[in-house]
Amino acid sequence: MKKKEKKIYNDDDGRVIAPMNVDGMPWYNRHAPKIKEEMPSLPPEKMSGKDTLRLLLRLYAALIPVALVFIAAFAALIYFMVYVWLR
């Protein structure tokens, strides 16, 4: 039988996405080196007043239809209880 060759990926930069050295697992190694965060933290970008207003208007444009659906469902429930169920 031919021995399988190990695949080598050219895009591997050596970062750990999810460390699997978890306390309590059978493969836990307490002497393994700790993983440090190497992602640089970028300062948050400042938003202008127009961007903030545009963001709030889009937020309300998304929330108002959902709120109206819930209000209509509640009104339909009250109507059903008063005029159909309790007669």
List the helices and strands and how they pair.
Elements: H1 49-85
Strand content: under 5%
E-strand count: 0
Total number of helical segments? 1
Oligomeric grouping of the chains: single chain
| H/E element order | H
Q: What is the end-to-end distance?
A: 82 Å
Mean pLDDT: 84
Low-confidence stretches: none
What attributes does this structure have?
mainly alpha
What would a concise description of this structure say?
The chain is built from one helix and no strands.
Describe this entry's structure for a reader.
The chain is mainly alpha-helical. It has a domain at about 45-85. About 45% of the residues lie in helices and about 0% in strands. It has 1 helix and no strands. The model has no long low-confidence stretch (mean pLDDT about 85).
